Amino acid sequence: MGRDSFWRIEHEGLFYGLAAVAMAVFALGLVLRVREWRRHGVLPTAGALLRGALRSLSPGRLLRGDRAGGWMHGLVLWGFGLLFVGTVLDAVDEHLVSFLEGTVYLVYSVVLEVAGLALQAGLAWAALRRLAPTPSRVGPGVRDLGLLAWLSAVVLTGFATEAARLAATVPAWGGWSFAGWALRPAFPHGSEIHPTLWWLHAVLALGLVGAFPWLKLKHALSAPFVLAEHAAPARAPDAPPALSLLQHIQLDACTECGRCSAVCPPALAGEPFDARSFLLATAAGTAHHPWSCTTCGACQRACPLDIHAGELVAHHRQVAVEEGTTVPEGVAGVLETLFKYDNPWEPSKKAKKAFHRSLPQASTDVPLWFVGCTAGVDTRAAEASSAFAGLLRASGTAFGTLGAKEPCCGHGARVLGERGLWTEQQEALAGRLPADVPAFSTSPHCWTELRALRPDAEHSSQLLARLLRSGALALPGRFEATVTLHDPCWLGRLGGETEAPREVLRRVPGLRLVEMQRHGADSQCCGGGGGRAWHEPEGGRSPGELRLQQALATGAEIVVTACPLCLVMLEAARKSANQEDRLRILDLAEVLALAMEVPA
Amino acid sequence: MKMAVCVKQVPEVADAELEVRGGVLDTDDLVFDLNEWDVYAVEEAVRLKEKLGGHVTVVTIGDEDAADGLYRALAMGADAAVHVDGGDFEGSDARGVAAGLAAVLSRGSYDLVLTGAQASDTGWGQVGPQLAARLGLPWTTLAIGIEPADGSLVVVRELEDNTAEKVQLQLPALVTVQTGINQPRYVSIMGIRRARGIAVEELGADDLGVEVPASGIASRRLSLPERGAGARMLDGPLADTARELAGIVRDRLGRSA
To answer: What contacts A377, CB < 8 A, 6 or more positions away?
Structure first.
C-alpha cells in the first residue's frame, strides 16, 4: 500500500524548484514582518513564542464572543493544519524514511480526507456568513471572498487530482480515500488529466505558501507573537507617546472579525465610532477623533487575540493632547477645570468643601475614606455618599477624609490622555495620604488610582460585604424587592471584583437579584467613562439608555450600581428615556440604608 | 513675519466668592490664568507663524506669577518671552502700561503686534490703541479674522448686531483680537514643563529707561453687586404652574388679563 507522490508527473525537479521559491518568498515575507516589528522593541524568546502559539490554538479563544464563528474557524484551522502536516509527512516518506504503507497509510488517507472535507466545509461556511442577507460583522469584501475562493480552489483541485488518480489506478485500498473515491466517475480519463490537475493544485498551493505573509492569513504568523509574554519596557513619564511593540504586532494580527465592535458602547448606541474601525484606521494611519471611547475594556475581553482597541484610543488621545490643536473645546475645558479647581465637574471648590464639612478629618489612626470628585460634588451621587457615611457610622467603623484638601485622583486626566496632569495629581494624592492607613473609596475610578499607591485599598462594595459578614451591619427586617445589578466597568471587568456587590445583595433578606444578560465581567458600560460624563463627543448618543433597556428586560424594579459615575449616568438615562415610573436607580449603600430602616 | 503679543495674567472669577479688601479685590484664594482675549491673540500669532514662517515674542508686565502666562504662551508655540517687573507699574492706568510695553517693543522691530481687545479684570480696552499710538503704528480693534496680503493685512472686525467690517492695514501694524477669532490649542502639563526650559528675559522700568507716567485715574470705590433673592421654584401640576407663571409675567409687564 501507499502511493506514488509523483505518479505520472514529469519534471519533479521543476516542482522542487517551485517549492523552494515559494518557501523563500514565504521566508522573505516573514523576515520583513519581523524586522518591522523589531524596530519597536525586543521580540519575545523562542520559548515565549511557543507558549504564544499554543495559546492561540485554545478553543476558548476561538469561541469567545462568537461560537458559530469559532466553530467555523476551527474547521478551517485544523483542516488546514492537518493537511499541511500530511504534506510534510508525505515529503518525509518520499525522501527520508518510507513509512506511509500498510495500516499507517490507510489511517493517513482517512484522516486527510476528513481534514480536507472539514476545511472545505469551514470555507463554505465562512463564505455564507459573508454573503448572508442579514447584517453581520463581516461583509462580502472582494479580498476576503477572493481568499476563500483561492483556498477552496486548493482543496478542490486536491480532491480532483486524487479522484483522477484513483479513477486511473483503482487500487484495492482506494475506498479509504473515500471522498476522492466517490468522485472517481467524474474523471473517466483520469490518467490524461491527472498531470494537469496535479500541477494546478501544486501551483495554487505553493502560491498560497509564498503569498501567506502578505494575505490576511498572516494573522497566523502574528498570533504567537501577540500572545507571547512581553516585558513592558520602562518608559520615562515625559516620553512622547508611541505605540508599543505589542501594539504594532497587534495591528498586523487583527483579522477584522468585529467581535470588539459588537460590544463597543458607542457603536451599540449608533455613534460614528467603533473599536474595529478605529483599530484599522490606526493601522492605516488615518485614525482621528478618539473622543467617543468610554474606556470600558469590553473590546479586549471580546478579542480572541486580546487586542485592546481601547489602548490604541488612549494612545491617540495622548498624541492629540500633546499636539494640542485637535483637542475638542469640551475636553480642554474639563482638563483645565480639573487642573485649576481639583475636580472635573465645575470651576469651583465650593461643593467639595461643603460636602466634607460634615465629615471627620483624616488622621494616622483611622482608615481613610477617599470620597472623590463625583461622589462629593454631584448632588445625586452625594446622596449615595451620605447613605454610605450613615452605614459606616451605624457599623461603628471609624474613618476620616482629606476634607477640603482632597485632591482629584486624576483619573479623568488619565483617561483623556493628559499623562502629565495625571502624574501631577497622583503625586499630590501620594503626598496627602496619611502614612500606613487603609484606604477605601466608593468610586471604582478613584479606587483604581488609590490602588496604584495602596495596593490593598478597598472598594466600598468590598468593605460593606466585610461589615455584613462580621455582623457589624445587621439587617433585622426583610426588604422585599426585585433588583438587578449593573457592574461598573472599572470595578468588575477592569477591577476584577464582581463578587463583593453580589455578596452584599445576597445578604439582604427579602431581596431578589436577577441578572441582566450582560453582567459581571461582561457588563455593558453606562457610557460615563472615558471623560464622557463631563463632555459629549461629536455624534454622541446614550449608551446608558441601552443599558436601562437591558435592565427593564429583567423585570427588576431597581437597578443597583456601585459607582457614582454609573449612578449619575443611569439617572440621566432614566430621565431622557422617560423611565422614571418604571425603574429606580440606587447605589449599593442606598439599598442597604433602606434595608436597615425596615423593622424586624 | 516677526510678531509680538502683549499678554496679561488675570484672576479667574468663576468660583465667585469674591471679597473686596481695602478697595481692591482680594486675590489670595483666586486662580490666575492668561486673560482670555490674550490666549486668542497668542493662538492667532502662532497660526500666522505656522502659515507664513517667522517669530513670536510674548511680553507681559506683572508680578512673579505672571511668568505662568508666559510659559503657557511659549508652550502654545511662541518663541521668546519678556517679563517686565510689575512692581514698577503698580497702580498704573492704560497709559502707564502702554508706555512700558512700547519701551519693550521699540527695542526690536515687529511686523505685527497683537493684543487682546480687553482684559477681563480691568476692562479698559485701551492698551492696544495707546501702544499703537506710541509706536506710530496703524491699528485696528476687535479682529475676528486676520488674512495676510502683500505687505499688508486684511482684518475682519466684529461689530454689533452680527455685522462685520473688513479693513486693510499696511504693515507694520497693531491689531487687538476679539474672542472667537480661532480655537486656541490645548497646552498639556508636559508641554508647559518643556516650555519652562526656555529662558525668559526679565526687565525692569530702569532697564527699559522708561519713566512710568503717574496714573491719570484713581479708583474711589470697588464693591461687589448685591445678590438677588435667587430663583423661585414653581411646583405642582402643569396646568397650575402654567397659570401661576402667566400671572407673574402679567404682573411684571404691568398688563391686564
So the answer is: A343, A345, A346, A351, A352, A355
| Model confidence pLDDT, tens digit, residues A386-416 | 999 999 999 999 999 999 889 999 999 999 9
Count of positions (residues) in chain B: 257
Tell me: pLDDT of A128 over 60.
yes
Query: Quick one: pLDDT at residue A572?
Result: 95
- Which residues of chain B does A322 touch, with a Cβ-Cβ cutoff of 8 Å? 188, 190-191
Element (H, E) at B3: strand B2-7
Q: What is the mean pLDDT of residues B76-94?
A: 95
B174 backbone dihedrals φ, ψ, rounded to 5°: -125, 135
Q: How many residue contacts between A and B have a Cβ separation below 8 Å?
A: 52
Which element (helix H / strand E) includes B84?
Answer: strand B80-85
Is the minimum CB–CB distance between A239 and chain B shorter than 8 Å? no
Question: Which residues of chain B make contact with A347, given a CB cutoff of 8 A?
Answer: 12, 14-15
Distance CA A395, CA A389 (A): 10
Partner residue opposite A325 with nearest CB, options B14, B185, B193? B185
CB contact under 8 A, A421 and B17: no
Of A130, A72, A59, A65, the C-alpha closest to A264 is: A65
Helix (H, G, I), strand (E, B) or coil at B156: strand
DSSP-based three-state secondary structure for A259 = coil
pTM of the model: 0.89
What totals of helices (H) and strands (E) does chain B contain, helices first? 7, 13
Report pLDDT for B24. Answer: 80
> Span A183-204, mean pLDDT?
90
**Distance from the B15 Cα atom to the nearest Cα atom in chain A, whole angstroms:** 5
Q: What is the pLDDT of residue A236?
A: 61
Mean pLDDT for chain A overall: 92
| Mean pLDDT (whole number) for A213-238 | 81
Interface with chain B: mutation pick from A325, A335, A339, highest number of B CBs within 10 Å: A325
Of A335, A350, A419, the CB nearest to B186: A335
pLDDT of residue B61 exceeding 70, the answer is yes
ipTM (interface pTM): 0.87
A332 and B186 within 8 Å at the Cβ level: the answer is yes
Q: Are B15 and A348 in contact (CB < 8 Å)?
A: yes
Spatial separation of the C-alpha atoms in residues A487 and A484, rounded to whole Å:
10
Report CB contact under 8 Å: A420, B15.
no
Contacts of A6 (CB under 8 A, 6+ apart): A12, A15
CA distance, residue A584 to nearest chain B CA (Å): 22
Residues in chain A closer than 8 A to B186 (CB atoms): 321, 324-325, 327, 331-332, 335
